Amino acid sequence: AQTVTQSQPEMSVQEAETVTLSCTYDTSESDYYLFWYKQPPSRQMILVIRQEAYKQQNATENRFSVNFQKAAKSFSLKISDSQLGDAAMYFCAYRSPSGTYKYIFGTGTRLKVLA
Amino acid sequence: NAGVMQNPRHLVRRRGQEARLRCSPMKGHSHVYWYRQLPEEGLKFMVYLQKENIIDESGMPKERFSAEFPKEGPSILRIQQVVRGDSAAYFCASSPGDRGREKLFFGSGTQLSVL
After folding, report:
1. pLDDT tens readout for residues B84-101
2. CA separation, residue B15 to residues B10, B21, B34, B35 (Å)
3. Among A75, B8, B42, B46, whose Cα sits 20 to 30 Å from the Cα of B88?
4. pLDDT tens for chain A, residues 1 to 115
5. Residues facing residue A66 across a β-bridge
6. Residue B114 main-chain phi, psi, to 5 deg
7. Of A101, A102, A106, which has the smallest distance from its Cβ to B42's Cβ?
8. Is the dihedral of CA B20, B21, B27, B32 positive or negative?
């Protein structure tokens, strides 16, 4: 069975600095999708970035980028120029390309942004 | 286009009562997923439904929990005879048909508190 591990329960970053959140996963599949979701205090789950495993190029969305290391089964999120609005819980998620497409989530990392 | 609508946002029940959580998917979406989030944990898959069909209920407890997605109206997650351990945030997500299942759109969740 697939698993997703986020080993950092909490991280802090100074405003305008860069922070990296870690995520590792375990799977025997060769093709899959990986996601980072942001959950602010409002509880809304917001998709930050998505990566297809068959793509070697790391995904980028404005200040958010990933470091996808398929062999190491690692999928870290880098947030550049951190802003106060980035403070939230961040969840890494895995999705199989087949079957019922259910997502498997990690336990989350709480990001604090210091002014 | 309204997003995924969940109600109520907060629900308080006493032990032994029934809880009904509603989810209206995005317009045009025929696939609904329910997830549960315990405090300080990630989202755990419960059940996947299409209109009038339960496709995958592997994450749902066998007793007291049931879900439906009728031809007309919202999807309902029902918890009978609630216990304190049922206290959690319950999230609904929807996606378009088969060709769009890679993208899930989440509601803001229902926070269930069992006294």
Report:
1. 999 999 999 998 866 555
2. 16, 16, 22, 21
3. A75
4. 789 999 999 999 999 999 999 999 999 888 899 999 999 988 888 999 999 998 889 999 999 999 999 999 999 999 999 999 999 999 999 998 777 778 899 999 999 999 9
5. A77
6. -110, 120
7. A106
8. negative
